[in-house]
Protein backbone atom coordinates (compact mmCIF):
# COMPACT_ATOMS: atom_id res chain seq x y z
CA UNK A 1 0.00 0.00 0.00
CA UNK A 2 1.20 3.52 -0.78
CA UNK A 3 -0.24 7.02 -0.78
CA UNK A 4 -1.63 7.88 -4.21
CA UNK A 5 -3.42 11.16 -3.51
CA UNK A 6 -3.65 13.71 -0.73
CA UNK A 7 -5.29 17.11 -0.70
CA UNK A 8 -5.24 20.64 0.61
CA UNK A 9 -8.42 22.66 0.75
CA UNK A 10 -8.05 25.93 -1.15
CA UNK A 11 -10.24 29.01 -1.34
CA UNK A 12 -9.52 29.63 -5.04
CA UNK A 13 -8.31 26.91 -7.42
CA UNK A 14 -6.82 29.32 -9.97
CA UNK A 15 -4.84 31.18 -7.30
CA UNK A 16 -3.78 27.87 -5.77
CA UNK A 17 -2.62 26.48 -9.12
CA UNK A 18 -0.51 29.59 -9.72
CA UNK A 19 1.04 29.44 -6.24
CA UNK A 20 1.72 25.71 -6.20
CA UNK A 21 3.21 25.71 -9.72
CA UNK A 22 4.80 29.14 -10.26
CA UNK A 23 6.05 29.65 -6.70
CA UNK A 24 6.49 26.22 -5.10
CA UNK A 25 7.52 24.53 -8.36
CA UNK A 26 5.01 21.70 -8.68
CA UNK A 27 3.57 20.85 -12.11
CA UNK A 28 -0.07 20.39 -13.05
CA UNK A 29 -0.96 16.73 -13.60
CA UNK A 30 -4.74 16.55 -13.90
CA UNK A 31 -7.49 19.06 -14.60
CA UNK A 32 -11.03 17.77 -15.05
CA UNK A 33 -13.99 20.20 -15.06
CA UNK A 34 -16.66 19.37 -12.45
CA UNK A 35 -19.21 22.16 -12.78
CA UNK A 36 -17.83 25.35 -11.23
CA UNK A 37 -14.91 23.45 -9.69
CA UNK A 38 -12.27 21.09 -11.09
CA UNK A 39 -10.45 17.92 -10.13
CA UNK A 40 -7.09 19.68 -10.11
CA UNK A 41 -3.88 17.96 -9.09
CA UNK A 42 -0.21 18.85 -9.03
CA UNK A 43 2.87 16.66 -8.62
CA UNK A 44 6.56 17.09 -8.00
CA UNK A 45 8.51 17.49 -11.25
CA UNK A 46 11.04 15.12 -9.67
CA UNK A 47 8.37 12.38 -9.37
CA UNK A 48 5.64 12.99 -11.99
CA UNK A 49 4.10 9.56 -11.37
CA UNK A 50 4.28 9.93 -7.59
CA UNK A 51 1.80 11.20 -5.04
CA UNK A 52 -0.64 13.76 -6.40
CA UNK A 53 -1.75 16.80 -4.42
CA UNK A 54 -5.41 17.66 -5.01
CA UNK A 55 -6.13 21.39 -4.84
CA UNK A 56 -9.59 20.80 -3.42
CA UNK A 57 -12.20 23.57 -3.16
CA UNK A 58 -13.02 24.51 0.43
CA UNK A 59 -16.75 24.99 -0.15
CA UNK A 60 -17.98 22.41 2.36
CA UNK A 61 -19.33 24.20 5.47
CA UNK A 62 -16.99 22.29 7.81
CA UNK A 63 -13.82 23.12 5.90
CA UNK A 64 -13.36 26.86 6.40
CA UNK A 65 -13.68 26.76 10.22
CA UNK A 66 -11.29 23.77 10.25
CA UNK A 67 -8.74 25.60 8.08
CA UNK A 68 -9.06 28.78 10.15
CA UNK A 69 -8.55 26.88 13.42
CA UNK A 70 -5.44 25.14 12.10
CA UNK A 71 -3.96 28.40 10.79
CA UNK A 72 -4.79 30.27 14.02
CA UNK A 73 -2.99 27.59 16.03
CA UNK A 74 -0.02 27.57 13.60
CA UNK A 75 -0.64 23.99 12.49
CA UNK A 76 0.43 23.17 8.92
CA UNK A 77 -2.14 21.50 6.66
CA UNK A 78 0.61 19.69 4.73
CA UNK A 79 4.34 19.04 4.81
CA UNK A 80 6.68 18.97 1.81
CA UNK A 81 10.24 17.63 1.80
CA UNK A 82 13.05 19.80 0.45
CA UNK A 83 16.79 19.22 0.19
CA UNK A 84 17.81 22.44 1.96
CA UNK A 85 15.32 24.34 4.13
CA UNK A 86 17.37 27.56 4.52
CA UNK A 87 18.00 27.76 0.76
CA UNK A 88 14.34 27.10 -0.06
CA UNK A 89 13.30 29.63 2.60
CA UNK A 90 15.53 32.27 0.95
CA UNK A 91 14.28 31.42 -2.57
CA UNK A 92 10.63 31.57 -1.57
CA UNK A 93 11.00 34.71 0.53
CA UNK A 94 12.57 36.45 -2.46
CA UNK A 95 9.40 35.52 -4.38
CA UNK A 96 7.32 37.27 -1.71
CA UNK A 97 6.18 34.20 0.22
CA UNK A 98 5.18 34.95 3.81
CA UNK A 99 6.59 32.59 6.45
CA UNK A 100 5.07 32.12 9.88
CA UNK A 101 8.13 30.16 11.05
CA UNK A 102 11.68 30.76 9.86
CA UNK A 103 14.01 27.75 9.50
CA UNK A 104 14.26 25.90 12.78
CA UNK A 105 16.48 22.94 13.61
CA UNK A 106 14.79 20.36 15.86
CA UNK A 107 17.05 17.39 16.33
CA UNK A 108 17.28 15.50 13.05
CA UNK A 109 14.90 17.81 11.12
CA UNK A 110 14.91 21.39 9.93
CA UNK A 111 11.53 22.99 9.27
CA UNK A 112 9.96 26.25 8.16
CA UNK A 113 6.28 27.14 7.75
CA UNK A 114 4.79 29.27 4.97
CA UNK A 115 1.39 30.70 4.08
CA UNK A 116 0.13 29.29 0.77
CA UNK A 117 -2.15 32.34 0.14
CA UNK A 118 -5.15 29.97 -0.07
CA UNK A 119 -5.90 29.62 3.64
CA UNK A 120 -3.28 27.03 4.62
CA UNK A 121 0.02 26.88 6.42
CA UNK A 122 2.49 24.54 4.71
CA UNK A 123 5.59 23.11 6.36
CA UNK A 124 8.78 22.48 4.43
CA UNK A 125 11.25 20.12 6.02
CA UNK A 126 14.48 18.28 5.61
CA UNK A 127 15.41 15.19 7.62
CA UNK A 128 19.09 14.49 8.23
Automatic annotation (TrEMBL):
Taxonomically, which superkingdom? Bacteria
Domain VOC: start-end pairs: 2-127
Q: Which PROSITE patterns match?
A: VOC
Signal peptide residue numbers: none
Q: What InterPro entries does the record tag this protein with?
A: Glyas_Bleomycin-R_OHBP_Dase, Glyas_Fos-R_dOase_dom, VOC_core
Q: What is this protein called?
A: VOC family protein
Amino acid sequence: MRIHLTSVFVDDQDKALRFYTEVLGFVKKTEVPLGVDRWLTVVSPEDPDGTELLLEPDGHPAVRPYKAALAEDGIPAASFAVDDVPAEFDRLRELGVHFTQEPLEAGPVTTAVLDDTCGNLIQILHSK
